[in-house]
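Cont'd.
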Amino acid sequence: MDPHLLTRRRLLGLFGAAASVPILSSCGSSVGGSGGGGATGGGGGTVKVGLVVPQSGVYAALGTDMQRGWQLWLDQNGGTFGDRSVETVVADEGETPQTGVPAVQKVLQSDGVDVVVGLVNSATALGVRNVMSEARKLLIVTNAGAEDVTGAGRTPYVWRTSFTNGQISAAMGAHLAESGFSEGVYAIAPDYAAGTEVIAHFKRAFEAGGGRVVGEVKTPFGTTSDYQPFLTGIQDSGARATFCFFSGSEAITFVRQYAQFGLAGSIPLYGSGFLTEGNVLPQQGDAALGVQNTLHYSDQLDNPANKAFVDAYTTAHGEAPSCFSMATFDAANVLNRALRSATAIDGDALSAALGGIGTVDDSPRGPWTFENQTPRQHIYLRRVDNVGGKLVNAVVQDLGPQSQPAAV
Amino acid sequence: MTAVEAPAVPGGEAAVPPRAPRGRAWIVAVAVVVVLAAVPLFLAPFATTTLTRILVFALFAVSLDLLVGVTGLPSLGHAAYFGSGAYAAGWVSINVTAQAPVPLLAGVAVGAVAAALTGWITVRSAGVFFLMLTLAIGETVQQLGNAWDSVTGGANGLTGIPSVRIAGAPLANAGFTYWYVLAVFLLGFTLVRLVARSPFGAALRGIRDNEARMRAIGYPTSLYKYAVFVLAGGVAGLAGSLLAAQARLVALPDLGFATAAFALLAVVIGGAGSLWGACLGAALVIVIRDALGPSLGGHGTLVLGAVFVLVVYLLPRGAAGIRLRRRRSPS
Amino acid sequence: MLVSVLNGLAIGFLLFIVAIGLSLVFGMMDVLNLAHGALFLGGAYLGAAFSGSWGGFLAALGIAAVGGLLAGSVLSLMTGPLRRRSHLDQALLTLGVAFVVAELLVLAFGDDPLSVAAPPALDGSVTVFDAVYPAYRLVLIGVGAVLAVVVYLVVERTRVGAVVRATVADRDMVATIGIDNRLVTTAVFAVGSLLATTAGVLGGPIYGARPGLDATVLILALVVVVIGGLGSVRGALVGSLIIGQVDTLGRVLLPELASFVLFAALALVLVLRPQGLFGGPAAVGAR
């Protein structure tokens, strides 16, 4: 016999130690009743929030920003929503719905949270709609930008404090059409659902303003590290400007290579604001200088709420906040407002209360309102500038309040 | 036929110990089924949901074990058939009917057809080349899923899948969904077990151990490999239809490399060739990834990788090796 | 168009440096080292940590080389005890190691994607074929070509290379004639890993350093060695140059099929020639 073989007891120890934690700690019954397991809330003194954000995988940096934004609001407001103290349970959304959906189910069913906040991945946000409505609990999405999250098939239990993909790119489409580029823009985005939405809404707004798209390409998502083949296509198209949608590492690579291959000097680069937002900007370095983009936020916005937010955030973490921190900060803000008028902390009561909070007038992004459960908010034209040796997204122009555009 | 029966890889035959006391094996099997069936009465929803996920992934791992353990074809693209079946079941549930056998049949059919369409390329190769070809097919199918977004929903995933309906009534909660998944799992497991124990299964093990010899004594080995590839694809599609019923969401990663690799880990952890071992391996993977993972501060993969490395060293024959030892030491 | 061909060369030579180690390790030990991509990522993170100056770049190269040698020796020791078990167990062991190493790198270097500046003077762009092209990539073509020649000469023209080739061809025969091939296999594993980490430093200015890069690079390298034929230096070189062109020129010519060209090329080669372009006919059945 092989000496390495384990005894059965050791095996049971190995498997049992792992298995018993989640399974045995949660006895009860899964039959009868549709929700179950969770705390009932009522008039008690606490509200339990499940903060489901990526702690692993390619979106982990966004998850860090989101946790910081959430915590900052709580720290500034005594850790309470109204007269209820807030208890936060953080869970790892991971990279895909394969990990994100179980994480949401875990905080709902195992930790018994009253509200779920977070979610970067749109597929996860869309995939938990039925979980939330069956549990009759509220979810506030603080990033995922797919239009369907708050589109025609939305549920009253899922709200959003971030943006919609098309909201941001449509504003850029209208702006470019009236800025002398109507003769020809090239559109490039990764080949996945968000890229498709961004390009579709950009094109519709740009063409409605009399613009002409001279070329369009979708790059393989998540596996493209060298954009040279596509950059050649842009140069050959005769475009006057490029509109792109990239984020994370793809944004870094694309912007740097756009400069390295000499396009930056001849064909100005425009994009959706995630191109130069948050942690990617310092990595892009001078290659990003002059890139113009649209977003619902910039840490450079000149309003008192934002100045206070940026100061506090920078003091705590040594770097400026991103739109991801801001949207999660605002999620705490709107929950607090809703709880002032909510009769209970179940999803129905909170959803009704969120519908009545009116204009959020103390947000770092400027005033905004919920419209169909997602923000109607100002979109800003930003340009990457060097301010005192540091790259920032300077606000060039306020493009005015924008709704989630109708589906293309 | 003697060549066929010779067990060449130690432990490979562990699932079918020749001297197993038939009565006792039956008692154990019945006891396990009874305990599994009673689980929703005692466990809270999240634990039941986790167990449901384990069963779904276990059936997928069992279908892969038919290729890896029984036939000796290590696949890194088996998720392509699992995911195809899941998309088919989900699409049918949304657009046609969620009435019980229909999504299952759709999953099986699409899984098997996808395997039939791609299998003729893969079964011509073996070993690492088989690994690479299946990997390439898996990645390509995932790209197709991304491109065909009118059916699959692309990167947003196929969402809004209704609950499975049985005799007109939807499965109302985690407990009923669990029982449905358990019933189909038992069906699929029994089917694979019967195949593995049949003369056909014996021939597959012969191919695993020495394909040239099997060919020499007159077996059409390519045909056999093709048949088991399609069968494994069908069972993976069945598991996929359970995924659609349980998660009510199918997304591109369900087709991709990571899913296929985790299934392969589950098979190896359990001991390739042992069907119930694959189920244990699947349980370990799902518990770490879905139940513990959210609380590990983002280090779920680290723990899974470390556990896996340990298991490869400490359990050279996987969980099946344990049983071998227990059986032999008292006698 | 010509720029795309040139760029394909740069990517191709970088791939060759990654793939040759993978190919030789498999050819000699039958170990498909799925941790190879994680080694590349380690090099890329080192490059990112030290980027900005020539001193930093060379330091990163040096540390990556030593680290690669150590990592390769450790991997060789780890897979040794599994030699009598199936190749699948060995491959999956390295997959587990890959998960662990990639996670540890993220713990050490953070989860932000990082960019890597080319060393000063190579950071700019030059004009080639009437197009602007990054100078660093031109240098990379030269470095890759030199490395390819060196590896080729060592394997094909030296005594050590002869042992390596003989071990690839028939391991048992080499042992029978009294050569202790464990030392040779460990050395090949170490040098192969060194090339992977070095490629990580060299590739940093192109690919950056980020979580997930390990899997992307690993899959590219696997495609290269399978197309070229496992264990063959010539195969790895030709495979790298083909994939370099497929990944650039293919995307210029067929942008709407960009996601498919890589695996289409792999499937095409394997359907027509299952053992790869330069693989021996025995490879298919035996492995």
